[in-house]
């Protein structure tokens, strides 16, 4: 069985390696086509640029034959630059994708567009001269190298659109004339469609021929595989028949020896019967002991389950305590924040009282200055002096009140600072208590897990003891049956001796069949050799 599995895996991986090699070959072929067409599209673009230079800069169309000028048309530089820019942009885009992945699926389409628009640019730059229209057939030949019908259709549609636009709107850029006969347009179209159609038909037929060839090769490979398998099978069959023939004498001797051994087994069966009777009594004693172990394990299981439940309840109480401690910690933290805010507010009040004190001092100075000025004024300033004196008294009272407020604020600040420190200590103590409670909870959790594990183990022991008890009962029954079968074996061995003698006669017949099988296999090998010669 292992040999067949290894053989199958070997054939599978060999086939997989062949498929990967074929795929790599296809990918490398596609990459090579992309590289060749990319070079040709670059050459066509360079030729287009040269044509634009010759006709737009050097005006070579004015003097083609013996310096006799021919008809020259007016073309827009903007339109010509558009015709020239399109293939340049397409080539740049193609190079970008080629550098990322030289067998990218979009590269054939970009190459086709570059070559097609390069030909259009060449025709437009060459003032629509008929000579440059031959570049269309060059494009058809280059695109046909890809052997893809969709690319040929795209190229044909683009040239068809170019000729239609040239006939109706851009005649001077396509045909080199302001007016072009419709009949000539039809001739152009027929030749273009005929050439493209021929290339398309050739591509389709070639694909069909290649597909037929692949099918024939696959059938040939299948036939070769069948013949190879037949050859291998025939060789194995010959080897097997030779081996069987060699083993014939050994089997005959083995059967004779087996008959003698069976007689010895018959005598040993009586001894085995006596031993099984003694073993049955011992098994019954073991079964009684296992029953006591099972009862004890059940009691331990009940005790461990009760202990686990109590540990679980303790774990729940610890969890509730942790939650309460967390709540206390949060409340204490909130109170600490309130005390800190009170301290901050008292500091702000102190700043305000300081400002009031400064204002009162300034007011007192102003009152003194006003009293001095009133004294200088004499009778006219008496009323003003009284007011100034009252203002001064109010300022002094404000200073005194501010001093008292300052003292009170300082006392409040000292108390809040002391309270904040006490709150911090309470928070630290609460955190410490929370950590202790959490650790206690973890310890209870581990205790619960351990007790639960012990309970499960005790359950398993109880179940195992029950199973062992049942097994020992079964063993006891089996021993009784063995004693009975030992008696039956002693009687049946005599029948086996008789059967072995009959088997020996069958081996003689098998020897004759092996010889016939060997002759048939030789004829099969001869047929395989003749088939290989016909291939």
UniProtKB/TrEMBL annotation:
<feature type="transmembrane region" description="Helical">
    <location>
        <begin position="36"/>
        <end position="58"/>
    </location>
</feature>
<dbReference type="InterPro" id="IPR004089">
    <property type="entry name" value="MCPsignal_dom"/>
</dbReference>
<feature type="transmembrane region" description="Helical">
    <location>
        <begin position="182"/>
        <end position="201"/>
    </location>
</feature>
<feature type="domain" description="Methyl-accepting transducer">
    <location>
        <begin position="247"/>
        <end position="483"/>
    </location>
</feature>
<feature type="transmembrane region" description="Helical">
    <location>
        <begin position="78"/>
        <end position="98"/>
    </location>
</feature>
<dbReference type="GO" id="GO:0007165">
    <property type="term" value="P:signal transduction"/>
</dbReference>
<dbReference type="Pfam" id="PF00015">
    <property type="entry name" value="MCPsignal"/>
</dbReference>
<feature type="transmembrane region" description="Helical">
    <location>
        <begin position="105"/>
        <end position="124"/>
    </location>
</feature>
<keyword id="KW-0807">Transducer</keyword>
<keyword id="KW-0472">Membrane</keyword>
<dbReference type="GO" id="GO:0016020">
    <property type="term" value="C:membrane"/>
</dbReference>
<keyword id="KW-1133">Transmembrane helix</keyword>
<feature type="transmembrane region" description="Helical">
    <location>
        <begin position="12"/>
        <end position="29"/>
    </location>
</feature>
<keyword id="KW-0812">Transmembrane</keyword>
<feature type="transmembrane region" description="Helical">
    <location>
        <begin position="151"/>
        <end position="170"/>
    </location>
</feature>
<protein>
    <submittedName>
        <fullName>Methyl-accepting chemotaxis protein</fullName>
    </submittedName>
</protein>
């Amino acid at each position: 069985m292992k040999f067949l599995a290894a053989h199958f895996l070997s054939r599978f991986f060999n086939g997989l390696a062949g498929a990967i090699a074929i795929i790599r070959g296809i990918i490398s072929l596609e990459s090579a086509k992309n590289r060749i067409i990319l070079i040709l599209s670059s050459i066509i673009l360079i030729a287009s640029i040269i044509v634009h230079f010759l006709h737009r800069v050097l005006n070579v169309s004015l003097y083609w034959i013996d310096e006799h000028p021919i008809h020259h048309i007016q073309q827009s530089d903007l339109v010509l630059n558009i015709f020239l820019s399109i293939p340049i942009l397409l080539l740049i885009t193609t190079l970008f994708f080629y550098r990322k992945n030289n067998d990218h699926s979009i590269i054939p389409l970009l190459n086709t567009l570059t070559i097609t628009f390069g030909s259009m640019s060449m025709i437009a730059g060459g003032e629509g001269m008929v000579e440059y229209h031959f570049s269309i057939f060059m494009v058809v030949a280059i695109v046909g190298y890809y052997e893809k019908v969709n690319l040929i259709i795209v190229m044909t549609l683009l040239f068809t659109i170019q000729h239609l636009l040239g006939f109706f709107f851009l005649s001077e850029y396509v045909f080199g004339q302001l007016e072009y006969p419709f009949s000539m347009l039809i001739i152009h179209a027929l030749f273009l469609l005929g050439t493209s159609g021929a290339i398309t038909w050739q591509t389709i037929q070639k694909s069909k021929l290649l597909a037929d060839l692949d099918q024939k090769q696959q059938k040939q490979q299948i036939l070769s595989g069948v013949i190879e398998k037949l050859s291998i099978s025939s060789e194995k069959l010959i080897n097997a028949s030779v081996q069987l023939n060699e083993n014939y004498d050994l089997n005959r001797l083995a059967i004779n020896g087996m008959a003698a051994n069976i007689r010895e087994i018959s005598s040993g069966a009586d001894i085995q019967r006596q031993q099984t009777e003694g073993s049955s009594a011992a098994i019954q004693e073991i079964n009684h002991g296992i029953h006591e172990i099972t009862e004890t394990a059940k009691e331990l299981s009940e005790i461990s389950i009760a202990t686990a439940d109590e540990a679980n309840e303790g774990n729940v109480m610890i969890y509730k305590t942790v939650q309460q401690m967390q709540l206390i910690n949060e409340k204490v933290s909130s109170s600490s924040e309130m005390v800190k805010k009170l301290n901050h507010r008292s500091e702000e009040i102190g700043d305000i009282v300081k400002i009031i004190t400064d204002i009162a001092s300034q007011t007192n100075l102003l009152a003194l200055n006003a009293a001095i000025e009133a004294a200088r004024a004499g009778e006219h300033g008496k009323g003003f002096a009284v007011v100034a004196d009252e203002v001064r008294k109010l300022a002094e009272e404000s200073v005194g009140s501010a001093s008292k407020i300052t003292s009170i604020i300082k006392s409040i600040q000292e108390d809040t600072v002391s309270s904040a420190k006490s709150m911090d200590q309470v928070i630290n103590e609460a955190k410490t208590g929370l950590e202790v409670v959490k650790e206690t909870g973890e310890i209870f959790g581990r205790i619960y897990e351990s007790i639960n594990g012990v309970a499960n183990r005790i359950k398993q022991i109880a179940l195992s003891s029950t199973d062992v008890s049942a097994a020992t009962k079964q063993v006891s029954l089996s021993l009784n049956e063995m004693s009975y079968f030992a008696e039956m074996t002693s009687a049946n061995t005599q029948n086996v001796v008789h059967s072995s003698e009959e088997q020996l006669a069958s081996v003689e017949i098998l020897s004759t069949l092996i010889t016939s099988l060997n002759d048939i296999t030789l004829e099969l090998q001869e047929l395989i050799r003749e088939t290989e010669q016909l291939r």
